[in-house]
Amino acid sequence: MAQSAISQHVAALAGIPSQPTAKTVPGALKPGYRLVPARIGRSTDEGIIVHLPCPTWCVVDHVAEKSVFLEDVNHEGERRAMSFTPSSGPRVPVEVYLSQWPGSHEPQTQLAVDLDYEVETYDRTAALALADQMAAFAEDVRRLAETLPDDSRVRGEAV
Fold first, then answer.
1. H helix or E strand, kind and range, residue 53
2. What distance separates the 2 farthest-apart alpha carbons in the chain?
3. What is the dihedral of CA 98, 99, 100, 104, to 10 degrees?
4. What is the 3-state secondary structure (H, E, C) of 91-122?
5. C-alpha distances in angstroms, 107 versus 17, 63, 79, 103, 148?
6. How far is residue 38's CA from residue 60's CA, in Å, rounded to a whole number?
7. Distance CA 154, CA 99 (A)
8. Residue 56 CB: number of other CB atoms within 10 A?
9. Are strands 110-115 and 48-55 parallel, antiparallel or unpaired?
10. What is the rounded distance in angstroms from the CA atom of residue 129 to the CA atom of residue 122?
């Protein structure tokens, strides 16, 4: 009799369709993303908190950096910086970081290069070409620097 009661429940459950997995649920997070809070609203109000997908490499605090519209939310990775300090005038900063504007007409992740506060973005192919050009330039700088006289000899110090 116990077997009969269990069989009835199993038969009843067999008629219930299985639930979709995360891969088939529309709006499920893609791998490499997490759900984070973001503050949206005008500068004159407190704004509201919404939750949105954010790439795991993004370091932006979307609550602290309020956006006026959801489409204004952008993602930025950790910045790598270097400065050129000329003998006169202000330093020239150079920064690179990953950047993504999901609400834009080009929502894919790009490499942003900020040279003295002018930002250009590069897709993967262009970013790799830029890296190759920078590596070749660095080799030229090193080759030229190695031809310079030893610093201690220039200052008149004993070697």
1. strand 48-55
2. 104
3. -150
4. CEEEEEEEEECCCCCCCCCEEEEEECCEEEEE
5. 36, 21, 20, 6, 47
6. 10
7. 45
8. 9
9. unpaired
10. 10
| Sole residue written with tokens 């690179």 | 96
Give per-residue pLDDT as tens, 96-135: 999 999 988 888 999 999 998 899 999 999 999 999 999 9
Q: What is the pLDDT of residues 54-64, one digit of tens each?
A: 999 999 999 99
Scanning the structure block, which residue is given the tokens 């006289």?
149
What's the chain's Rg over C-alpha atoms?
A: 28
> Is the Cβ–Cβ distance between 63 and 50 less than 8 Å?
no
Give the β-pairing of 80-84 and 75-76.
Answer: unpaired
Strands 92-100 and 75-76: antiparallel
Nearest to 94 by CA among 102, 110, 83: 83
Please state, in angstroms and rounded to a whole number, the distance separating the CA atoms of residues 87 and 55. 40
